[in-house]
Write a structure and sequence with these properties.
Elements: H1 8-24, E1 32-42, E2 48-51, E3 58-65, E4 72-76, E5 99-103, E6 109-113, E7 118-120, E8 129-138, H2 141-144
Length: about 160
């Protein structure tokens, strides 16, 4: 969808936000591109199961139409083994929760690491929830990012 001429302005908005994240993270290799873009239309009663976006660095959602009752995205604790032993908590707080429900609104652009698992709760409204999602990766990943990140003549740890 990002290759359509009608998307040019929105793509610019997306990429400005992405470049701010790249700058804030002090990433050396700044050349990135949109690898995929699609629209999500969630009628009443729809949801989206827990998932992530493999083979990408950043993912994002831009909210076009957000009815009350269809105004959340849930981010899940990425630790695979978190549910092996989960005690019963007296009170859920920022130190013990295993997911976060984020409220969203029309015009909001949310960027997050592609590895972060997320889902969309059931749209309990009588209206459609519409969003546009996209993924970002480094333009030349195999040459810039995937090679080992060490100096060959420098020890990786101090000797005895």
């Amino acid at each position: 969808m990002h290759t359509l001429p009608e998307m040019e302005e929105l793509n610019g908005y997306f990429m400005n936000a992405v470049n701010e994240v790249i700058r804030a993270l002090s990433i050396k290799h700044k050349d990135v591109k949109i690898t995929g873009c699609w629209a999500n239309i969630g009628p009443p009663g729809s949801s989206h199961n827990v998932h992530n976006h493999p083979n990408n660095f950043l993912s994002a959602v831009y909210y076009v139409t957000v009815p009350q009752g269809g105004h959340r995205i849930t981010f899940h604790d990425p630790r695979y083994q978190i549910h092996v032993l989960t005690p019963v908590f007296e009170k859920i707080n920022e130190h013990n929760y295993v997911y976060v429900n984020s409220e969203v609104e029309e015009g909001l652009l949310l960027l997050f690491p592609s590895w972060l698992t997320h889902s969309v709760p059931v749209n309990t409204s009588n209206e459609r929830r519409i969003s546009i999602s996209f993924n970002i990766n480094f333009t030349d990943f195999t040459e810039q990012v995937s090679p080992p990140n060490w100096e060959p003549d420098v020890p990786t740890h101090p000797g005895p």
